[in-house]
Amino acid sequence: MADLVYRKIMRDLKERIFNQEFNDKKLPDERSLSESYGVSRSSIKRALNVMAQQGIIFKKRGSGTFINPLYLKNQSLFNYEGTNLGVTDSFHLDGKRPGIKLIDYQVIPASKELQQDLFLEPDDFVYKIKRLRLLDDEPIIIETGYIPIKIMPGLTPSVVKGSIFNYLSEIEGKSVTKSFMSILAEPSNQQDQELLGLSDKEPVGIMEGIFFLDDGTPLEVSNMRVHYKYLKYNTFVSLDEE
Amino acid sequence: MADLVYRKIMRDLKERIFNQEFNDKKLPDERSLSESYGVSRSSIKRALNVMAQQGIIFKKRGSGTFINPLYLKNQSLFNYEGTNLGVTDSFHLDGKRPGIKLIDYQVIPASKELQQDLFLEPDDFVYKIKRLRLLDDEPIIIETGYIPIKIMPGLTPSVVKGSIFNYLSEIEGKSVTKSFMSILAEPSNQQDQELLGLSDKEPVGIMEGIFFLDDGTPLEVSNMRVHYKYLKYNTFVSLDEE
DNA sequence: TTTGAAAATTGATACGGTCCAATTTTAATC
DNA sequence: GATTAAAATTGGACCGTATCAATTTTCAAA
């Protein structure tokens, strides 16, 4: 994973940028980079494309490649890194201790909507798993997930008390690297208030969507009701389509 | 813009997918596509990569390329299209009539934070523009923006009553295609409640961040307090880095 | 000094090739 | 039949080239 040419270039360039090596905010041109790194221009282009997509640099034809001034100042914003997409990975908040409390666990027939979203047959069953996510014993997320039985036959309550995605990758060698999510907000309902310790004037953030396995199999439909103070979704958007 | 090879391939493939031409949910292999379209495999790869990044297809080495079942069902979710990033473009809600009410307009010295975010000198000035966005006369967003004077010397109140981004692209030929945004939620404050017609139990969604010009110049620091019923941010996330 | 055309620079698109790695298919063996 | 090994399939990485398009630089003419 780490020995790809274009990734090595990226790592090195990021470091050089961070070390202020390019004090005019401009990178060398692609042909020079190609020569100095001793790799093809295609690989340079690939590295620069990814970095541009992440918002670290801007490219302008005829002019050159420029460093995003914000990258130097606020590098942390540009690190969407992580090995997985699950909550256990996403909220790596400053060494706080994550916890899970199992609220509900049952096996139910898949509803029409779940059949569609998870690509199931009418007689398929799913786990319904409702959990409370904690950070240093403080509740922050009410998470309700639906997972097809036939994909994870071994999903026992004891497994569910830990990270399902980690279990998947460690035990079954499958990884969850893609998701389609919607983010929105709502007033908190009574259950939110009880479980998350909110007043009736405090809202919840909602992240709902579908997690996919590597090969595109829909794994889980998830609905997360997040304590509003812990919801902060950062994103760099580019309309360039590549 | 529309005559690029890889885009033509993308358009055609999307249409063929939508027409159920690949009823086994599997696309032809790259080499066949290359031959049948009469283009190089590289171009096929490029088209497929972009489509994979958009979540339309999944690729699996050794196995093939597969259609995301959700694409057929819910195609609208996969259209992040648009020519600009501004609010005027983002919320194209079903032919509703957008409107703008100017609340505040002044020229002020750039604060420390603005100096950093917009890359300004200590003696630079910015416009502070506060506007209420309407949809069919219903208020949905309180938008506060800061734009450097030196970038848009001609930003008069009359311009500000319309779309600033459209003005930029039509009059000055510059386009805003990149942004760095954070999305979060908060209880509504009194002003939110008055301007957006919310009760004290209803929250606002907040989208704040920086808009960039094509060449990487930071154009605007923006803070949008959105009526919670209108905040819905859809996104496909992939950890594959390309 | 200013203007404007030509030249140089620089990223973008596209081609086509080599080799590799994961997976599936096929065939052989027990 | 089941198991295993070999072969074929299929996407991934990387290289090097040719041509184009936007921008900047150079330099001669006015």
Structure description:
Chains A, B: Keywords: DNA-binding, Transcription, Transcription regulation. Chains A, B: One of its GO terms (molecular function) is DNA binding. Chains A, B: This is GntR family transcriptional regulator. Chains A, B: It comes from Paucilactobacillus oligofermentans DSM 15707 = LMG 22743. 2 copies of one chain form a homodimer. The first copy, chain A, is built from 9 helices and 10 strands. By secondary structure, chain A is α+β, with helices and mostly antiparallel strands. Chain A folds into 2 domains: 5-78, Winged helix-like DNA-binding domain superfamily/Winged helix DNA-binding domain (Arc Repressor Mutant, subunit A), CATH 1.10.10.10; 87-230, Chorismate lyase (3-Layer(aba) Sandwich), CATH 3.40.1410. The first copy, chain A, has a 6-stranded antiparallel beta sheet with strand order 4-5-6-9-8-7. In chain A, strands 1-3-2 form a 3-stranded antiparallel beta sheet. In chain A, a hairpin with a 2-residue loop joins strand 5 and strand 6 (138-148). In chain A, helix 2 crosses helix 3. The radius of gyration of chain A is 22 Å and the shape is elongated. At the A-B interface, helix 3, strand 2, helix 4, strand 7 and strand 8 of A face helix 3, strand 2, helix 4, strand 7 and strand 8 of B. The first copy, chain A, binds a DNA duplex (30 and 30 nucleotides) through residues 4-6, 29-31, 39-43, 45-46, 48, 59-65.
List the helices and strands and how they pair.
The structure is a homodimer of 242-residue chains.
Chain A: H1 5-18, E1 26-27, H2 30-37, H3 41-53, E2 57-60, E3 64-67, H4 69-73, H5 87-90, E4 98-109, H6 112-118, E5 125-135, E6 138-148, H7 157-160, H8 164-172, E7 176-187, H9 190-196, E8 203-213, E9 218-227, E10 233-238
Antiparallel strand pairs in A: 1-3, 2-3, 4-5, 5-6, 6-9, 7-8, 8-9
Helix pairs in contact in A: 1-3, 2-3
Chain A binds a DNA duplex (30 and 30 nucleotides) through residues 4-6, 29-31, 39-43, 45-46, 48, 59-65.
